[in-house]
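DM from R.C. (forwarded with permission)

"hey, sorry to bug you on a friday — could you get me a structure for this? deadline for the figure draft is monday and I only need the backbone to look sensible"
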Amino acid sequence: MTDSSTTAAVPTLTDVAFPSDEVTECPFPFYAALRHEAPVFRDPAGSGYFISRRKDIMFVLQHPEIFSNQGYRKDARLVDDPREIIGLKDADLASCPIQTPYNMSMSDPPEHTIKRRAAGDLVSRHRLEQAEPMMIEIANELIDEFIDDGQVEFRRQFAAPMALLTICQLAGFPAKDRDRFLSWVMGSAHGRLYMDDSGVSALRDDAADQMEYCRQLILERQAEPRDDFMSAWVKESVERDGGLNMPYLVSELRLFLVAGNETTQRLITNTMMLLLQNPEAMARIRADRSLVPAALEESLRIEAPTQWVSRLCVADTEVGGVPIPAGSFVLMLFGSANRDENWDHPDTFDIDRPDLQKYHLGFGGGLHRCIGAPIARLEARVSLNGVLDRMTNIRLGPHTAEDLRNDSLQKRVPRTLPLLFDPA
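My reply, with the result:
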């Protein structure tokens, strides 16, 4: 087991600037300084508060009436409004229980409850049982494309298309459009809090294409339903709402595609990187595949694919004894909570930890705990087993430090992961 932290001593907040290239590449010393000096810390450069301990983050997650997911009420950059971007009009549906044009990730109860329930069949036990053979087939087809080469850029050639093709099959997106999906710039609303205007513009440049694509799919499924999740979801939405609530449907369908792709590819890539850094764990998993789920949970803990998400405080309150006024953003640092004092040797990759799935925040928590977590877990398990079945002597290929850099404040994953291997 190795220590994935880059420093032995806890730095002080004066030693680390945020945001910075240093923190983007390795945020863990910054998190440690926050936990030791100011677990609820007001960002002097903005109106946000960093919350770094698990117990304080759980307080925020458990009080959605105080901490809203409708961050666009304060910062309009956080959402792409389909009414504005592709000229959709609000549906004339007076009795529709959904009145906001945004997906479930930007919603509060009661709308959030309705939207989440509507998406529930995507992760039903029946659908996942049917999906596993499909996932195995996709994994093997992707490996077939590079197995004879003895090398692969693991993220681009395996993890990314594995995640994308899986959500296409599960939700009903046409797999033939894979290259189009992969070309789109993806990004979450939360991450925009620390993006400059050029970064937000880059995300919005593709938004019109993404939204119009989703609009056309919705119309097609309404006109010619198929035996897939998307057709059933559109049908049930129309029956519930009394017609097509297109602004909401476009936003939600776009979320299925983005969320079903990004988090899982980061989980698969990060897990492989951790196993390369911990060869004894790699050897144990090769010998005993029942350890694969534990390795994935520890990967979610120590390298949370989404390092933080935000909430908008809508009433004056306190967190950890620190007053937080209404109108402030709070950033829940999941990546910090997963390494706080509740864990033994928190900076060490240890696949023998008890109750990992119960306590880590790799998929968030509370009402907005990632609805796709069961898909991601199954897909990552199938992926890792497929790779171990067909590749031996896996090792890092030629690379530079820049190749392995993490370049996102929020989304934890190396830019590339070049591997060499021997075909099994």
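R.C.: lifesaver. Residues 114 and 213 are 24 Å apart (CA to CA).
me: no worries. The chain has a mean pLDDT of 90.
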